């Protein structure tokens, strides 16, 4: 596959982002909101998207700064803000998460949800993003992020078959969205060129829309993450395989990291 032609169209993604993340891993949203509620203080979210975590966090009374490279995503988020009442402040910053620099350098909690670190397809820039996190953390702050587990079965699967990501029902519009994916892993570069498809059906079961959206990940093995954390001046304090706190093993789909400054 020609990587140069396989790019993410963030304008098309922004319009469908919320639908895809309705099918996010079970417990993910609750996990991050619980961490925000528990740790308190100010929150920095990298890869804020259209605000699925940032908006409810601000509604809880937290002051949140959201960083995202995608202007269309941020525009969608700004439109949402006008419809809700927030007890906390929500500041948005358009920037690459491996390059951002903010005046505030003492956030109490930094989060990188939804496998966002893997959307950086260069190893040095992944390290740079973690260094940026460390630069903006208060001495006792916590960094939380999650990545998908690149198990041998997953990255070596050459079936070429599309797999189901989830089904999302819009009851108001009587529309059912079927989400699926098609992976193409390159184990030499540790990348996955994935085509994610959304097919929308009306209440009669007739197809009314179909979109294919590209996404490119640079996946990380656990040892890679540990090395990057060390380079960034961070230390791992907890490591889970699911959002319910399940200990990690090779069969887990998630790798969830809780870190502090060294």
Strand order in the sheet with the most strands: 3-2-1-4-5-12-11
Total number of domains:
2
Let me know the average pLDDT.
Answer: 93
Strand content: 25-35%
Structural class: alpha/beta
Per the CATH scheme, the topology name of the largest domain is Rossmann fold
Contiguous uncertain segments of 5+ residues: none
Number of helical segments with 4 or more residues = 7
Characterize the main sheet: 7 strands, mixed
Kindly report the name of the CATH homologous superfamily of the largest domain.
Vaccinia Virus protein VP39
SS elements, strand count: 12
User: Helicity range of the residues?
Assistant: 25-40%
- CATH architectural group of the largest domain: 3-Layer(aba) Sandwich
What is the name of the CATH class of the largest domain?
A: Alpha Beta
Q: What order do the helices and strands follow?
A: HHEHEHEEHEHEEEEEHEE
Termini, distance in Å?
41 Å
Primary descriptors:
262 residues; alpha/beta; Rossmann fold; N-terminal domain of TfIIb; 7 helices
Notes on the structure:
The chain has helices at residues 10-22, 28-39, 54-59, 71-81, 123-135, 152-155, 222-231; strands spanning 43-46, 64-68, 90-94, 107-112, 137-148, 163-170, 175-182, 185-186, 191-201, 207-218, 234-240, 254-261. Helices cover 26% and strands 34% of the residues. The mean pLDDT is 93. Helix 1 crosses helix 4 (71-81). The radius of gyration is 18 Å and the shape is globular. The protein has two domains: 3-150 and 220-261, 3-Layer(aba) Sandwich (Rossmann fold), CATH 3.40.50.150; 152-217, N-terminal domain of TfIIb (Single Sheet), CATH 2.20.25. The protein has seven helices and twelve strands. The chain has 262 residues and is an alpha/beta fold. The strands form two sheets. Strands 3-2-1-4-5-12-11 form a seven-stranded mixed beta sheet, with helices on both faces. Strands 6, 7, 8, 9 and 10 form a five-stranded antiparallel beta sheet that branches. The longest helix has 13 residues, at 10-22. A hairpin with a 5-residue loop joins strand 9 and strand 10.
């Amino acid at each position: 596959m020609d990587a140069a032609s396989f790019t993410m169209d963030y304008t098309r993604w922004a319009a469908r982002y919320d639908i895809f993340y309705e099918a996010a891993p079970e417990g993910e949203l609750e996990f991050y909101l619980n961490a925000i509620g528990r740790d308190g203080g100010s929150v920095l979210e990298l890869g804020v998207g259209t605000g699925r975590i940032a908006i409810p966090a601000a509604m809880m009374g937290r002051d949140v700064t959201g960083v995202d490279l995608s202007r269309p995503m941020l525009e969608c988020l700004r439109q949402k803000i006008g419809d809700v009442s927030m007890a906390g402040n929500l500041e948005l910053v358009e920037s690459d998460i491996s390059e951002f620099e903010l005046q505030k350098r003492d956030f109490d909690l930094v989060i990188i949800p939804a496998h966002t670190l893997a959307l950086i397809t260069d190893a040095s820039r992944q390290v740079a993003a973690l260094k940026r996190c460390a630069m903006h953390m208060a001495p006792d702050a916590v960094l939380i992020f999650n990545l998908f587990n690149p198990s041998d079965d997953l990255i070596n699967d050459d079936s070429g078959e599309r797999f189901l990501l989830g089904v999302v029902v819009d009851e108001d519009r009587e529309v059912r969205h079927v989400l699926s994916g098609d992976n193409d892993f390159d184990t030499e570069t540790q990348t996955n060129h994935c085509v994610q498809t959304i097919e929308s059906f009306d209440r009669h079961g007739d197809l009314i829309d179909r979109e294919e959206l590209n996404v490119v990940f640079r996946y990380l093995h656990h040892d890679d993450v540990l090395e990057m954390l060390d380079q960034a001046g961070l230390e791992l304090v907890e490591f889970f395989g699911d959002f319910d706190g399940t200990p990690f093993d090779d069969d887990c789909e998630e790798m969830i990291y809780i870190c502090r400054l060294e």
